[in-house]
Structures are given as C-alpha cells and as structure tokens.
Amino acid sequence: MLEVEDDNQYTNTTHTLSLMVPVLRQLQPLLTAYWTYSMMNAAFLSLNDVSSSYPVFTYLPYTPAGPQVVHVASWTPLLGVVVTEGHMLFPEKFSNFYGTRVNVTALPFAPFWEERKGLGNITLYSGTDYYTLAAIASALNFTIYVVPTSSWAEVTRLVEERVSFMAPVIHNVMPHRREKYDFSFVYEYVSMDFGMAPPGLQAQWKALYYPLSSNVWLYTLLALLFMPFVLFIAIRMEYTNIRSSSGSTLDLSKVFHDMTGMLLGQNLPRRLPRILSSRLLVATWLVFAIVFASAYRGNLTASLTLPKYPPRPETLPQLVDSVKSQAHLDNRRYQHYNIAKRFTRPDGSEMLYIGRESIMPGQSAWPLPHDAPYTAVIDRHLMAVIELALRSEFKSYSIVTNTHSCRTNYFTFSSDLW
C-alpha cells in the first residue's frame, strides 16, 4: 500500500518518485485524498510482475479532460527510465488550469477588494487586488470562486487548511503569520500614514490684525502712547494755558484723540499749534500715519484676495507640535480611497490630506498555503502584472471612479436640498 508521509516535509521544489503496489484503478482515488501526491511534483513507479517494464504514473489535477492519472514514463532494468513521448517525468501542473474553478477567500477591504450586488443578486467584485487576480486568472485560464467567509481569521484559516488556494487581498508580512502560511511575492509596500484636515483660516475678525506683524503693531501702539505725551509737553512749555476753539482747556486726552484721528486718516485738528517744534511733531506724525495706513491697506487687500493658510504638519514631529496633536492613522492607499470617495469637493479639491512622512512602512503580499507548488507560478504572473504597469492602472481607475462618484453624490445631495 502507498505510504503517505507528513505534507510539511515537502516543498514546492521537491521531486518525489514513489514505489507502489496498487493497480491503476485504485491509484486515482488514493491520490485525490492527499495534497502531497496530487499537487506536488510526484511520480509513481508501479511494481507489477506482468512484465519487465514498470510504468511510471503521475497525477495531473488540471487537464482538458479533468483530473487524471497519466502514464509519463517506463522503467526497465536495461534502459532505466524512458519518458513517454509528449510527456515529462515531472510535468508542470499549474501552467494551465483549463477553466477549472479555483477557490479563493477574501473579504471587502477597500480599495483592494470591494463587493456589491448586481442584477439578479449577483455579487460583483472590484478593487486593485481583484483586478490583479482577474488578470492572473485570465493568463492561467482558471475561474475565480470566492469561498464565503465571515471573518479575516476564517479567510486565512481556509488557506492554512488548503481549502483556499490563496487569499488575494493585501496582508502585511509578519513573522507570526509566516508560521501559519506562506506569502506570495511582496508586490506592494503599504505604509502607516497620518491624515488630517488642513489648517484653516483664522476667525474673520482676526483678518484685520494679520496684515501686519506683531512687532509692527507693538511699535505703533508705543508710538501712539508716546507721541501725544511729547506733543502735549511741547505745547505746555510754550503756553501754560491753551484753549481750544470751543473755549475749553486743552488737556492730554484731547491731544491723544486728535493724534489717533490723524493715524486713522481723519481730518486734521481744527486748531494747530503755532510753535515750530509742535508743528514738526505733527508733520512727523502725519508722515508716519500715511506710511502706516498705506502699508496696512495694501497688505489687507492682498491677504483678503489671496489668503495665506497656516503651514500644515507633514512629518511626525510637526504633527506632535501641532495645535491638537491628533490625526487619523491608516495605510496610505486606504486613506486616498476614502478621501476620493467621501472628502472631495465638486471642484476636485480635497477636504483632507495625507502627511508626507510615513509613520511605519510595511511589506504586503497574498497568503498562500505552506510550500504550495503553484507559488512560483503566482509570483511570476504577479510580477508580470506589476511590470506591465497594470496595477498602477487599476489604482488610477479606482481613484478616478470614486472621485467621480463623490462629486456626483455631492451634486445629487445639493439638488435635493433645493
């Protein structure tokens, strides 16, 4: 009887030649029960006493006629192993699946794998990982069948149990996961990034303050407090009792009121001092008021026409030093997807942004069973999809589609309001 050893002793590069006693009609049911002999590179030398030529069989799970045991060679004491014409001793089993249904496990994880109901309650799939899998399925000629699952733990468990050929949804490659299953070629680097709303403009009343720097305002305030006092002292040194046109005694508050009015562009006082020193002080203050008012009006017009936004955090230290020190953390692709789908204005501008610096980089791949013999085939076609820039096209298509959907929903919502 055929003796089956532990599957984990074999890798996808192992070639096994087994000696067997069962007749051919007993071989096929036996092979379908064991992964090692049905999927791995295995051949079987039949020991029979009918003749001096011993046939060598192998099991092909995918052929135009379905799974079958094929006579690939013969062994004789004189000639050794003689390969049958048109066959190989260890043929490639996974270069063509001949339309066979291949089990995979996946759950929705935008923008990599998405599901929606179509006509007739048929599930329609999309996303960059699904499009990548569909391209590989087209090249290898197999049909995709998504095994129903209820959790991500079940998705990978079925891969471990070899019920599922693979889980074609992006997974981070981690040491504790490698103990349970293998990974395909690392086809994408999914980093952990932070996203947040860009800093907005200050309150409207503060727009009157920001055209000039804090130092300019401080020096202007000091000048406004100092110059009226100097002018008042200069006038009092010449006249001990000066009366205004209304007949009231001129005091410091009235001088301050007049100089503030000149700074704000109001008319000159009705009565100016007659002494030269006082007139020079007033002239100097008028020049200062004209320069100050011109600079302020110009900067105010520019700031209102082209508002200057505060700098936004782009790195982790800048995020820590920001006002709120908080942001949303997730992988960059997922955040780009959500921004395109939910946070894009009708004019194409985005309400959120993603920081330039990544917090934690990570390698991502597809989970496959340990030592799966088709790993090299999947890796080769996965690399071909990337080298042909098909995956980049899938990404762009997903972003454009979701941006268009967001803008359409916005216009629909606006029309409903009106």
Explain what you see.
This protein is an alpha+beta fold and 418 residues long. 39% of the residues lie in helices and 17% in strands. The chain has twelve helices and 17 strands. The protein has helices at 24-31, 35-39, 128-140, 152-160, 175-178, 214-238, 252-263, 276-305, 316-320, 332-342, 375-387, 390-417; strands at 15-20, 41-46, 54-60, 68-76, 80-83, 101-104, 114-117, 123-126, 143-146, 171-172, 182-183, 188-189, 192-196, 328-331, 353-354, 363-365, 367-368. A five-stranded mixed β-sheet has the order 1-2-3-4-5. Mean pLDDT is 80; it is low at 1-9, 241-248 and 410-418. Belongs to the glutamate-gated ion channel (TC 1.A.10.1) family. It is found in: Cell membrane. Residues 214-324 form the Ionotropic glutamate receptor C-terminal domain. The chain crosses the membrane at residues 216-235, 280-298.
